[in-house]
Amino acid sequence: MVTSPTAATTHVFRGAHGDRMAFHEMGPADGRPVILIHGLFSNAQVNWIKFGHAGKLAAKGRRVIMPDLRAHGESARSHDKAAYTADVLADDNLGLVEQLGFGPGSYDLGGYSLGGRTTARMLTRGAKPGKAMLAGMGLEGLLDLANRADFFRRVLQNAGTHEKFSSEWMAEAFLKTTGGDPKALLLLLNSFPSVPRAALAAFDMPLMVLTGAQDNDNGSAAALAEAIPGATYVEVPGNHMSAVTLPDLGDAIARWF
Predict the structure, then answer these.
(1) Average pLDDT, whole number, for the chain?
(2) Average pLDDT of 249-257?
(3) Fewer CB within a 10 Å sphere, N or C end of the chain?
(4) pLDDT beyond 60 at 3
(5) In which band, very low, low, confident or very high, does the pLDDT at 1 lie, cut at 50, 70 and 90?
(6) Are 237 and 213 in contact (CB under 8 A)?
(7) Is 133 helix (H, G, I), strand (E, B) or coil?
(8) pLDDT tens profile 148-189
(9) Would you kindly state where each structural domain of the chain is located, as residue ranges?
């Protein structure tokens, strides 16, 4: 396991259907674990390591565990639709918690954008972290993903044709920088269930809703915080894409966890 607060190592775990999945780890092996899940089109390296966010947690003595989601990074990128069953991302990462032997309350959990949605699905399915974080996510993005999923379908299906500097063009440009697999990602888009409002009201652990002040991509983060009893609401500078690149995000995460 990792002993340096600034170095990361890569490990393998079994995802749903037995698929080969990867997670990256930083910080002392005996530190309290915190699992961080990245966003769509991204990966653990870009979302958490590149801009120093994971390093800030590791420097505090935390064991930071960062899976690459299915169809992303170093994890399985199957082109078989059978690999993308409903809620497969929650299945994969609930499996990671189990395989690492983390019992209720013994770890913390959070995610950004799609990682926030995956975190919410895990909580809905019974995950019991000590503390949780939903970042880059709004209420509408959890209750009904249809509009966002349609946006990303347009990005993937019409690659190379988007108007320069449009939202679709920017998303495609980001995908190119992370080496994403469009065919696998299109299949993944069909696997996202909603999170019922009643499930949000039942989240009973300390939970932070963290957002860029100009981020409305997934709806209202303030409304999401209001829907979760006792949730802490934190704004940092930036929009959905730029907030990840700024130190304020990592500072807020390190303070929370």
Answers:
(1) 95
(2) 98
(3) N
(4) no
(5) very low
(6) yes
(7) strand
(8) 888 999 999 988 889 999 999 999 999 999 998 999 999 999
(9) 8-143+193-256
The average pLDDT across 59-63 equals 97
CATH number of 8-143+193-256: 3.40.50.1820
Residues in the chain: 257
pTM for the predicted model, two decimal places: 0.95
Helix axes 146-157, 167-178, angle to 10 degrees: 70
The residues, ordered by sequence, that sit 6+ positions from 136 with a Cβ below 8 Å of its Cβ are 39, 112, 113, 115, 116, 210, 211, 212, 215, 217, 218, 240, 243, 244
Using DSSP bridges, classify how beta strands 207-212 and 20-26 pair: parallel, antiparallel or unpaired.
Answer: unpaired
As given in the structure block, the two tokens for residue 89 are 């991302």
Check if the beta carbon of residue 21 is closer than 8 Å to that of residue 77: no
Max Cα-Cα span within the chain: 49
Question: What type of residue sits at position 118?
Answer: T
Instruction: Please check whether residue 182 is in contact with residue 175, taking contact to mean a CB–CB distance below 8 angstroms.
Output: yes
Instruction: Let me know if 1 is exposed, middle or buried by CB neighbors in 10 A (0-12, 13-18, 19+).
Output: exposed
